[in-house]
Every structure is written in C-alpha cells, then in structure tokens.
Write a structure and sequence with these properties.
3 copies of one chain form a homotrimer. The first copy, chain A, is α/β, with parallel strands linked by helices. The first copy, chain A, has 3 domains: 307 residues, Alpha-Beta Barrel (TIM Barrel); 190 residues, Class I glutamine amidotransferase (GATase) domain (Rossmann fold, 3-Layer(aba) Sandwich); 46 residues, Golgi alpha-mannosidase II (Immunoglobulin-like). Helices cover 30% and strands 20% of the residues of chain A. Chains in contact: A-B, A-C, B-C.
C-alpha cells in the first residue's frame, strides 16, 4: 500500500520542482506519475526531441526518493502532427471532424498517428526505460474519455471492412450472419459496407455490435503497440493504463490482458453527480460522500482484470470541475475513499493532482494543494492516511465467496437494443452489486470466462450472450447461480437463440422467454410470493414459460412467472426493486451456505486479509459489526460519518 | 371481413413455407402480404432478376388457398443501386446524407431512383399481375416512416424551383404571394430559391408550406407511377398503400385518390406509448390496451379516403419494439382490436407478422408465432376471432350522422407556425374526436371537399384555410356546424385573411379574430356560462369581436367571448378542456336532433349495419347500453375488460 | 418624452401611406422609424438604386409633421448579394452554413459584405442625411439576434488569427498567456490556431474568451464603419442602435461608446416567457404583466451607456409571436410599460409596429393596429399615454445613490466556465437588481470603468475580472461596496489570479477563495447569523479563508464563512436566496446611510426628477408610498393592477 500523486512538472517553473518533490515525500507520497500530455515539450517539432527538462524532472523526483510512473503522451498529439496529417482527427457520428484544441483528438485507425505514437513511445522508452526510479509506465490516458472510442472516419471504414472480411471470410457469410435479407440490406462486396451512423432509422444491431467490437479491437491493437515497446525497453517495470468509472465503450477485460496492472481513476463525487441511472434523490443524498457502492464496484471490477493487481491512478482529492454539479466532499471523505481502496486491495492510491493548475481547462479542478501552494483540505487528509498507514501491514485480499459476472459485450448489446428508453445496463448490474454489498458480502467482479472455482454464489445480472462453454463451467461450479432478466437473450450474431432465450442455458434451466416487455418508468408490476406481495418490477419483464423440473417460486400479479428455479439455478424475470432484489439474493446466498451481514444504508464492509474494514457513507454515526473485544487497527466500534474503521478478524475465521 | 397476415418467405428456409401456409389457412387466415422489402432477392444485381424463389412462394401460398397481396419492394433499395447512384440517398435538414443500412434511404425527387423503381415494379407486375391468387398490390411501404418525406437534396431543390415556377408562373407573383418584401427576401429568378432549412431564424412560413406541398406532391407523383404500372399489368386487382397512424407529413387524401383501398398499420400500444399530446398519466393508464380512441380515429379517417374501402394492413399482435416503452397488451386486446376494426368497416385485418424474426432490426417485435414456431398469445386470439367470424355476416357501414373535417394542410400550417410551443394539431383534433366518441356517436372523418350531404352535425376542430367554396357548401348543408379555434386563420398563401380570420367564413359567421394568444401548459383561463364556471381553456385563445347577429354564449373570465354562435354555426374560441368540449359539443348535437349515448371512460360504441358493437378498454366490467332482450352476436350485456360485444339493432331503428 | 412607432411603408400599398401618417400624428406619435429591412427595394439589383418610393414615404411622413428615424437595411442582405458572394453567409458552430431566407444571414468578418454595407449606407446617407425630417439613424437591427455574433467561417478564422497576433505579438506569448503547455496545445504559428468549435471536449477557456472578444470587436468595427458614414453625411443627427434584452453576446458598453443614444427593444412578455433563470412558477405569475424588474433592469442598463440618453426603439404593444408561450398582456400594461420607460428616463418610446403585417414571419406579432386597420387594444393605450403626456414635463433623471456594476466579459467568462450546469450569469446579476428594487431604491447600472463618484452603495453581483485600477477607484469611492461570489475570480487571461481570488481586490479585502463548489438545483446550504438560520445558498459556494481584519458576519451551516466584511466592503460567498439577499443588501444600504422603502411584491418605484413614479405589476390594488397630501401627476394613492401613479416630490427632498 502506497500513496501516490499526479504531477506535471512542465506546467510549473523549474524553481518549484525540488520543493514540490521534498514536500511530496514529507507528506508520505511514494509514487509520482508524470509526463502524460507533455508531447509538445518532448518533441517540440517533428523529430526534434527535447529531453533535458524531463531528465531534470525525473532526477529531481528520484533524488527526493520518489518512485516514478511515466505516462506516454499520446492522448495529446501536438499541433504539428495534426498539420502533417489532418486525417488523424476523429470524426463524430454526425460526420463532423473533431478539431485540435483539447485532447484525445485522434482516430485509433489512423496509420499516421499509429506510427507517430510508435516513434514517441519508443524514444521515451529508450531514454527512461532503464532509469532506476521508473517503476511503471502508463499507456496514453483514459482511453475513450469524451466519447472517443468510435470514430466515423474513412480510415475506420476501411479497416472495419478488413476486420469484417477477416471475421466472416465471405460476404455471403456476413449476409447470413447479419440477416441482411431483412430490408434488402445484402452486400456483394465487403467494400460496400459502411459505418452504422446517420441512417434513416436504426441500423442492423449486429452491424452496430460489430462496429463496437472492431473499435474495441482497434484500441487494443493500438495499446498493445505501446505495451510491446515499453516491455522491450523497460524490462521489469509494470505497464498499466488508467481506466475510468462506468465506462464500457471498449472491452476492458481484453485490453487488461495485455497489462500488468489495471488502474482506474476514482472520482466518487463526479460519478455520483453524473450517472443517470442513480435516481435524482439518491444523487442528492450522496452528493458529498459519493454513492456508497460506486468506488467499491470499480475496485472489485478492476481487481478482476490483472490477477488481482490494481491501482487508483487518479484519486479525487476535492471538488472536480466536470460534472453537472461539483460539490465539495464531506470532511473526511478523501481519507475514507483512500482507505476503502486499500481495503479492496489497491496497491497504490495516487491523488489527482499535486497542485491545482490556475489556467487552461482544469483550473477549477481541486488538488492536494491550492494554486498558491498551500495544502488544501484533501492534502491534509492524505497526510493523515500516510501517518495511519505506517502501522498497518497489507495482506493479500483473497478470493471472495460471491462472484458477479460482468461482460462488456452485454453493455454494448443492451445499449444498441435497450428496447425501452429507460433500461440501463449499468443500472441493472449495479443494482445487483449494491444489493449484495448491503447484505454485507465481499464480491469479486469477473468476466464470464473467469475461473469460477471456489465461489459459493455466482450472480449474472445481465449476460446477453451465454455460450455452451460457459454453461458447461456453470454446471460444474457447484455454486448457487442467479440470472437476471435478458440473460442468454442473444447469440454472438445478435440474434435470438434458436429455441428462444436463454439459449444454451436451457440445458441447465429449461425455460423459454417467449416475449419481453419494457415499461415506462412510472409503471410497476407486483411480484407475489405465496400469495403476498413481495415487491415489484419496473422497466422490464421477461415472459417465461417454465420447462420440466422448473419451480415457479414467485409470480407477477398477472400470474406470469417472476422467479424460477431448478436446483442451484435461479432466474429473475424482471428488474426487481431494491428490496425485492435483496431478499431474493439473500435466499440464494442462504442456499449457498453464506451468512449475510445486512448493513444499514450508509455502512459498508470489506475484508482484506486479517482486517475487516467498515466504511460509513451515511449521515449518522453507527456501530460496526465487530465481535466484542475486537482489536481495531483503525477507529473503534462507534463509527462517525465519513469515517473508516478496521479490526482484526479472529485468525481461524473463514473468509466469506 | 377477412383475416390476413404479413409474411416474408425470403427470411425463412424454403422447407418451412408449405407448413407455414398450411398453418395460416388452418388458423383462419385468408390473405397474406408478401414481397415488400425483397428487392435484393428479386434483382440481386442490376437488371438480373431472380423470380424463382418468389414463384415458388406464391405457388405454395396459393396452393394453400390463400389470397396474396404483393408489395412492391421500393422501400428498401438494394446496395448496388445506391452504388450506381449515391445521390438517391436523402438529405436531412441539417445537410447530412442518410446512409444505406436500414430502409427508406431514398429521395422522392431523385430521377435515377424513380426510373429504377419503374423498372422493378414493371418487372414484378408483368410476372405476377395476372396470377389468379394475387388479389391486391401494395405500393412501397409506409411512405414517410422515419421522417423521410422531406429531403433537402439538390434534386429536391431543383424540382422545388420547377414546382414553384409552375404554381406562380412569374417570380414577381411568387414574391407578392409570399410577401417577400418583408426582410428583403425578394427573388429575381426561381433558380435563386433554396430549401427552407438551416436559416438563422424562421423561414417565411409560406416558403415552408410550399416546400411541404411540393414534397407531398413529389410523393404522389412517385406513387402514381407505381399505380399506373400495376393497373396496366394487373387489371382487376386492388392497389393500396399501407398508411400510418398520427402521421400527416403528406396529404393522404390526395394520395388516396389514386388508390382503390386505403389501408393502415394499426399499432395501438406503440402509438399510445409514443404520442406526446396524450398526457403522461393517460399514456400510463392505457399502456396495455391502447388509448380507446386511437385505433377508431384512424379507422374513421381512412374509411373516409377511398369511398369507404379500408383495410388494416398491419395489426399489432403483441408488444412492438419501437416505442419508448413497449409493454405487452392485456390478454384479449388483440382480438378486441381486430373486432373494433371490423366494426368500423375494415374489409381485411392483417396481422403483423406471421412469425417473429430472430435477427436484424425487428427481432424484438412480436408476431402471431414465436421464433421457435409456436403460436404466441396474439396468435391464439387471432384464432378465436377467426372462429367467431364464421357466424357473423358483414354489413355495409353506412354514413354516420356526425362528420369531422380533417385537413392535412392544416397540420402543416399549425406545425410551421404553432405560435406556442405546446400547441399540437393532433392534440386539438383528437380532443374533438374523443369527446364525440364519449358522447356515443359514430363519426365520419372526411376531407373539407367531401360531400357534406346527410350529416346532422359537422365539426371542424382546426381547419386553417376555409375557402369560399367550402363556406358555400357548409351554408347549404343544413347541419349544425362547430368550429374550433384557429379556423379560417390563413389564406392559401399562409397569410391572415383580409378582414381578419375566419376569412370567407365571416359571410356565415360575422366575427373578427383580432388577436391570438398561446399559454404555457400550466396556465388556464376559466370559461363561464351564465355566470357560472363551465370549464377552462388551455394553451390557446382567440380574441373574438362578434359581429351582427352573433350570440356570445359563453365568455372567458376576462369577458372576451369563449363560445359564439349564429344560427346553426358555433365557434369555440379556445382549446377547451375535455369536459367543457364534451358539454359544448353535446349542445350542438342536441341542436342537431341527435341523441347522445354518453359512455363511461373505457367503453366505446360503433355500429356496423345491423350490429351495434361495444368495446371495453377500461379496467372494470361494464353493462353495455343494449336494449333489454337484444340478441347478441358477440358477448352479452356484461362486458369484461379488454373485451367486445355486439348485438343486433332493431331493424327499424335509424342510423345515428 | 415622445412617442414613436415602427413603420414599413414598403410593406403596404402607397395608397395607405398618407392616411397612416395622419392617423399616427392624431394618435400622438411624434417619431417614426422606417427603412430597415428594405435593402431589396432600395437596391433591387447590384448598384441600381431605387429611391423614388422612399423619397415619397419620407415626404409623406414629414408632411404629417412626423420626425423620422432611418434604419440602415443591412440586417437583411438581398439575394443578389448572396449570389455574388456566397461566403457572406455565416457558419454555425457545427459547421453548417446558415442560408438565405430570413435575416441576419451575414458574417461580420466577411469583407465583401463589409464593402456592400459601406456602399448602401453611404448611398442612403447621401440621399437623406440632410433631410430636415430625419432626426436620427439606426444602424442595422438587433445585432446578434438569432445567435449571430459568433460565425465559424473561414473569414472569422483568418481575422481571429490576425486579432490574436495583434494582441499577443508573438505566438510564444500567446502560448504562455493561454497556458497551452496544458494538454500539449502549443502553437508555433498564429496560422495554426483554429476556432474553438467542434472539439472532443472543452476548448481552453481563454481560447473561447478570446474568440468572444474578437467577435465583439468585429461587430464594433462593422458598426463603427456605419456610424462614421452617417456622421459624415448626416451631421447633427443622433446615431443609435436598437439593442435587445438579456442579450450579452457582444460588449454593449464598447459598441455604445460609438453611438449617441442607446436604444433597446422592450418586450416584457416575450422576455418573461422565454428567460430560463426565472423559475417557471414566476414566469407563470407574471406572464401577462412581465416580470416587474425585467424592463426596469434594461432601462437602467442602457441609460448607463450613452451619458444617460436612451430610447425604447421597439415597445411591445400586444402579444408577440416568438416566445414559447405568447399570452396577451393585461389590459393597461402597454400604457404602464410606456410610463415606466419614461420614469427611467427614456427620451422616446416607439411602439412596434404601426400595423400587424398579415404575411411572412411576423404575421402573428400584434401591433397598434390590426391588419384590417383598426386600432387594437395596445393602440388605445398608446393614445391614452399621449393624452396624459400633454400635462407632464420631462425632468432629467439624475444620478442614483446605488450603482450596480455590470460587465459583459463576466457573462462570457461565466458561460464559458459555469462549473455547474445551472449557474446563470443573468440569474445572479438580476437577483441583486431585483432585491435592490424591492428595497425601493433607484439604481444605475454601470460598467466597471464608470465614474463611481457620488454613489453611496456599489454592488458587484458578478465581476469576474477585478483589476488594480478598479480596486483603486473602489477604494477611493467612499461607498459601501458589496461583492457577490465569483468576483475577482479570473485574470484577463482567464486564469485564477496569483494568491487566489479575488485577486487584486485582496488589497482592500484580504480573503482567499480556496475552492468553489456548484450544487444541484435541489441542494441548499443554510446560512446562519448569530446562530440562527438567516437563509440559504443554492447552486454556488465560494470557500473563503478570511485574512487579517476581516469579519465573518455570517456562516454556512458547516461553519465556512458566508458573509465577510472589512470596513465598507462586503463579500457574499454564495448565491443567496432572494430574502437573504434582500436582508444582507439592506444592511449594506443602511451602513451607506440609505433609507429603504420596501415594497410589496408587485409594486415598484422609480423617481424622475421631481416626479416619483409607482408601478403596480401585481394582481391586487395597493396604496403607494406617497406622503400625505402629495400632488399626483398620474393616478392617486390607490393604485389598481397594471397601472401607474406619479406624484410630485417635495422640492427640498434629496434624491436617494
């Protein structure tokens, strides 16, 4: 467990550098990320490199005993490169070119940019790859930020056609797989295929899905180019990328396969005040603490990427500048967020940023220090964490008993075909995660192809495609398994499976989803268990015909099945309200032999090795569920708001 | 009365065709529509036709005793045609080209497309025009769907200039008619005139209106080209087009003059969950039954087009996939909708579609059969209708006593100049229709140039242009006549008439509308009759100065006239609330000697010949207003929700 | 004090002109504005002028004793000019060209348009400059209406680069000033710099601010060209422009420096029903009277431009046609608005327009006369004003005791970086103005560089940039001074000032704004004075660290300072609710020795010389605060709704 910070020496007078480095070290900072966005200073004109300033910056930081993460600067191509190759600029869905003047103004499919990136990354890696203070590399910055995964450029179009030719081999195969006979959309040549933007009405959903797959692959290809160079020139260093929260425009599991560490940028208030699937009243309630499950969700998600290794590359240290509303966090939250990240297994928590920059786009984004160089509130809390860390040893996190299956393709599929304007993929998945957290469980969020051994409860809130191989592994897992609605609803080719959803899963759970319905946000359908109302569904319903051996455990008010089970498998046929979801998941957990520790609304629990952490997001002090006589590493039995406690578990207690 | 179904043999393996045909016939289907959207299969490459598959499909269906409607495939031009003539693609108001990849990607003004359409329609008509099983032709599909009437292409611009030259003869005349002296908009040549999109502020409203007229004429020209070919090669067959609901971007009355039958696509739930002039609470209330007046409104509208002949070409058979929310219909509604269509005089009710297609854009659109080939809920209800039809003979519908005047130009005029963001043409017209239905009347919806003989009550909710000739006919009609606000507000050139609105109508009803006001949705103005509040107006008010002989029957709270009359003519000077509208229309009906049969909110009535139908859209069982001892053809006195009853009227009773 | 009217002879038959002129004069109209928008009639084809009609119009009006304001017709370039130079058309932020067909279809940076404007203005000025009836000229019409200040054309781009080169001299200086090192946005040549539209994410805020400054300068350059010509050819006549309400896309103070009179177009209902910072409930409440402070705000703003000289060039005379809802004004409001304008010092109130034009874009915009040539309600009220004016002599207005500092750059800065989606510049400023008005004060709205001598209370609701020079003048003013939040937050280069906000102001008021927060609209933070809740803040908070000698007068609930003071300076650290704002401003006023006359919600006061006016916007009759025995020039002690009273002040009473 280390604290870090993001720092941009090029943005400050050199006279400040040594003092900054000294103050970082004094504060307890051990890791510092630099250099991302500094392309115009590294290569001021084509092929002319200027390393002098960066040499000095690296030396200054290293001299203060800091470990350095170097970011490649490719998220901000310099003006001269755009002048040389204007077609680097990405193209929006409406055909408009996105101009120079901010960042991320490049198309992943553009070859000139690919080669320019290769050159700058190589030059940088050659120069600093062996520097002893350099412990890691970050590729680019926040891939996809500002909606920059999909580019509707000519280069995208050409490479998409090649990608399709590779995937389908013949255009006849593509026509068949896509079902292009519908509306005479058939092609006779791959060169005829355009991008799925600006059509009179919806494109074929598989056309859109394949364009998303292609775009994700393009990004992976681009990132892999950087990784290969960095590995070659900087052996032994970790290569990572800083991912974002609630962002799924590319397949992070795929990209993370090529990295050593998955890091992410944790802005709990920015997220809470932005994400639309959280009801307005809740956004208001948590506006100064962050929603209690947003940070944890991503910790658990990203821990599932690179064999458990994850960092917080950017940690919110005060108000941000980019959400619709940017409130100041409650006093104590910066410290609490930091500890929560460590509780979930983070190796490094690195604050964004050392000092608020008084000019340009992010001038109202707070930092550890104010622009006039005094420690701000977040800086004081970071110092407190650093002091507390001294006495606490980091244990390995260990595997949880509950796995939540998460799949980026399902997000794309659901977005391409919501079939109801208010149905939201993240809303659905996050609802399950939050319910499990409120039952007090530790959760691993894993991809569908993860090893499922060792889990007692596996939850699949929305897995659009369920293939034979997954059915096989689920069947052998020995776990209780819960499926949410719309699971198994599609084939790889974005079609309804033969024999109806949930497709191959029917081998284990013989049901037929004969129709689906979406509901307006105000509509509800009651769910009944043993004749009494148990809750209700909103937004979505599957109409399910149960097959042999399937038990209908609960029914909708019009008698269609709401919860079905067969052996260890359960199917929830609607978007249940939070309480119903919690009670139905509690039944599954009980069947799995797990003991829930239900928590009050703002309290959350997370175990790391011998330490049991408790976090209080709520407005009132609460008593933590520590056994009498527990020894506390942080805090005590009474936990005030915006605070964290941690106590040692009895040594012989099982992880659950 | 026949049942039909939409079927796409090209989308299914040939091995299924014979079985499908057999099952259709067994279910009671008599008519099957095929071939629309199959251009890429009929003409796989330029000029090379492949009729083999269609020959077999036609033969297979005919062999099962089914009657065939052939759709021309022009709503889905194939890729090769777009490759040959990329300027076929239509252009959006923002200048963006609408690309290939869905449907309706053509501009009506493009000559290459016109000629290609002529060739494929001719080829198809030559091949199947005389086939004994072919009973009708459908031109294209849903003209204008996905906002495809107006195309801002170069071809449109050129042909619009020619259209203007023909209409105005000289550019001086155009300048005069348009009032181009205002803001120096004068032209010296027709070639200078552009399309009215993308201007700093509003275009001249007559510029916009003429562009709408032109666009409607372009469509009519295109449709007439198809009709002529079909009539020439397929004598004795009906030619129809499938219109849509609440869609008025072209003049359906004009286009229907060229057809034998007006058909329309009836999706009550899709419409209810989409149309914005229905308040949200009502959309929620009727989300599973459809609003009780939406289907009926269109039956009555389309029955008024082709001498009473109309079909339902596509009948919703379960949840659709295209509304903001897509709930499943109440059990019974598919059957009930079907009977309601027959009650209003439909010759054929054809379900969309035989089997849900598991791939492409409409994979979540339900059908009579699920993708795995089992009869779905809608299919079961269709079978029940088929069984019930056996015992019921179809009478002619006959003329109603109440006529509602409907005019597409008025929709364009109101949209071009709403003068209040929330004023909606359909909201206004539909309000009158619904009020009359709730009074229990049968209604004919007719164009302003219809023969008005025989009506006792004529209602004009919003007739923007009232010419001398109509005034003449109204004056001679002998009927009670009601006008809503904004009637007679414009000349043919989109100007305020000389002497103020209602223009020539002042001959019969000497009033002057001296000013208008639009109100925010929350504002109301009370209406008083004899000093007591009778209701209120929302959204709109005309300020009316009564002339000689005009009686002010009701006043707004600030004493401006609200209801004025002179002899059999009444003028309503605001958008009255539903109850006020109903009571004022009831007065007019009483004056016309008509007896109202007010119904509870969900019940609706419609007579067809000797049979009086009653439909229950509401959530509770109701008693139908059948005379004691009536003989029932369907159901009985007690009518459960989502159900229909029909009883024989006494033979000597007058139609009213 | 004179009444005027807008008249467009070219839009009416010549046969009407003489009668129109006679009726105007009879009504009491003394001034008539003509000729704007008539370019296509003055110059029907390139270089061919037709003055005959305008000669006659001028003669006819002059013969009736009317004084004439001539408008230059450049807001409506004719079609032939666009044909000659299509690049005159402006370009929207999304790159779309704004086409011919309405008005304002020109780009200020286009040289061809500049020259064509020079020619027509010169020709017009030469012909009519010395005509004895011509008393004034209006340049163009409503600069910027329909969002036409910013044009993203090639011409703009080129001239913007020149403007930048002039401002910054070297590109290195620009890079430094803009902070382009951030995100590698550095340039090596001015020719590389684009316009700040269509970027992946936010442009550098100084990039946007400089583009706004440039665009404002371009407009000023264009206007000055017209002014110079008019001054040269028409000596002794006033040159004015008709500005708009709540429109700040260019710096009106700068443009007004070049004019003799600032006029504005007063549409109280249009504004009230359009402006979004007024809560919906209030918009509804005032929908027929106009919000009680909107007209006054602009009177006081524009009186502050040209040494106190201002006109109402267009006065709403009935419902307009361009707001979301266009209600009819309360009976009496047209007269009341007119008198309120005179009370604030207007020299002329000129109604828009003489007669409603029955065709083209504004056909539903009411006027003094209906299209059928009868005096409408507004016309009757104008006649009443004319009669009343006969007995009232116009005094000079005199300086108020309260100054409100208003700065267009602050609007741009706040819009470029709201840092909270709901924070609105006008909402903030107008809130202060309204609070002061409700305290009964007369207010001067002046630019920050105005002479501040003689004011007792200076209020700066939102002054983003506070330079040394202003601090100097404020310090010497002797007045009580109030600053709202975000004051002094930026440097000229759109950066946070060294030492944090409020920058140089800290010399007088040593505080540091260490962070800011924006809040969702529903969130509030309580403000406490002496332990009791005094009100609350919404939307915005500054976090302030008080320096030496600063008194924290009120605190937020979490103990951060809410109101701070030092000597005569006060800083409000949040967007206070209306009541709190009023009570805090009342404290400052009391400290300044001013006596408030708090008024009920709908009543408003304004003194002009010896006359004290009172206006009743509210729904109930009120008693005006006239001393017993006052002599009334208008009305009396009891003031009915939509009415105005005026009484003579005691001669020895001080202005306050």
């Amino acid at each position: 467990m280390k604290l870090g910070v993001c720092y941009y020496p090029e943005q400050w007078p050199r006279t400040k550098w040594a003092d900054d480095a000294r103050r970082m070290a004094e504060l307890g900072i051990r890791v510092v990320r630099i250099a991302e966005f500094a392309w115009s200073r590294m290569e001021p004109s084509p092929g002319r490199y200027d390393w002098e300033w960066l040499d000095e910056a690296v030396r200054t930081l290293a001299d203060a005993g800091l470990e350095i993460v170097l970011g490649t600067p490719t998220a901000a191509p310099p003006r001269w490169l755009i002048d040389q190759h204007p077609d680097i600029l990405p193209v929006a869905a409406d055909g408009q070119i996105k101009n120079f003047g901010s960042r991320r103004h490049y198309c992943f499919s553009n070859e000139a940019f690919f080669e320019a990136s290769r050159r700058i990354v190589t030059a940088m890696a050659e120069r600093y790859g062996q520097h002893p203070a350099v412990i890691a590399w970050q590729t680019d910055n926040e891939y996809g930020c500002h909606d920059t995964i999909l580019s509707y450029s000519e280069a995208s179009r050409r490479r998409f056609q090649l990608w399709l030719a590779k995937r389908y081999e013949t255009v006849e195969a593509l026509n068949r797989a896509w079902g292009n006979v519908f509306w005479s959309m058939e092609y006779s040549d791959f060169a005829q295929i355009g991008l799925p933007n600006s059509l009179p009405t919806l494109a074929n959903p598989i056309h859109m899905l394949d364009f998303r797959r292609f775009s994700s692959d393009e990004l992976r290809r681009y990132n892999w180019m950087q990784v290969e160079i960095l590995r070659a020139h900087s052996p032994g260093r970790d290569v990572l990328h800083n991912f974002m929260g609630f962002f799924g425009e590319f397949d992070h599991h795929e990209v993370a396969r090529d990295l050593d560490v998955a890091s992410w940028d944790n802005y709990p208030l920015g997220a809470t005040n932005t994400v639309r699937f959280i009801p307005e009243a809740d956004r208001l309630k948590w506006m100064r603490s962050g929603h209690p499950d947003i940070a944890a969700f991503h910790h658990d998600l990203y821990r599932g990427m690179c064999k458990g290794r994850f960092w917080i590359m950017e940690q919110e240290a005060g108000p941000v500048n980019w959400a619709e509303a940017n409130p100041s966090p409650l006093s104590g939250m910066v410290r609490t967020w930091t500890w929560e990240a460590f509780a979930h297994g983070a190796e490094v928590v690195s604050y964004f940023r050392w000092r608020q920059v008084p000019y340009a786009q992010e001038q109202l984004h707070s930092a550890l220090n104010t622009p006039d160089d005094r420690l701000d509130l977040g800086g004081e809390e970071a110092a407190r964490v650093a002091a507390e860390m001294a006495g606490i040893e980091a244990d390995p996190v260990g595997q949880a008993k509950v796995a939540l299956l998460f799949d980026y393709r399902s997000k794309w599929i659901t977005e391409i075909q919501p079939n109801g304007a208010h149905f939201d993929f993240y809303g659905q998945v996050f609802g399950y995660y939050s319910a499990l957290r409120q039952l007090g469980f530790d959760i691993d969020i894993v991809p569908p192809d993860a090893d499922l051994t060792g889990y007692s409860l596996i939850v699949a809130p929305l897995l659009s495609i369920i293939g034979e191989e997954l059915v096989e592994r689920l069947g052998k897992s020995g776990a209780q398994i819960v499926f949410g609605p719309r699971c198994g609803a599609k084939t790889e080719d974005f079609a309804i499976p033969e024999g109806l959803p949930p497709g191959p899963l029917t081998r284990l759970l013989p049901i037929r989803v004969t129709r689906v319905e979406s509901l307006p946000p105000e509509a509800t359908v009651a769910v009944q268990r043993e004749g009494a109302k148990a809750g209700e569904t909103r937004l979505w319903r599957d109409f399910v015909a149960p097959g042999e051996g399937v038990v209908v455990e609960a029914r909708f008010e019009d008698s269609h099945p709401a919860v079905l089970s067969r052996g260890p498998l359960r199917y929830f046929a609607g978007s249940f309200d939070a309480e119903l979801l919690k009670s139905e998941l509690a039944r599954a957990a009980a069947a799995a032999g797990l003991t829930a520790t239900p928590v009050t609304q703002g309290l959350r629990l997370r175990r790391r090795g011998r330490l049991q952490f408790a976090i209080n997001y709520g407005p009132d002090a609460v008593r933590v569920p520590a056994p009498a006589g527990s020894r506390f590493a942080l805090g005590g039995e009474e936990l005030t708001p915006a605070n964290v406690a941690a106590w040692f578990l009895p040594e012989n207690r099982d992880v659950d």
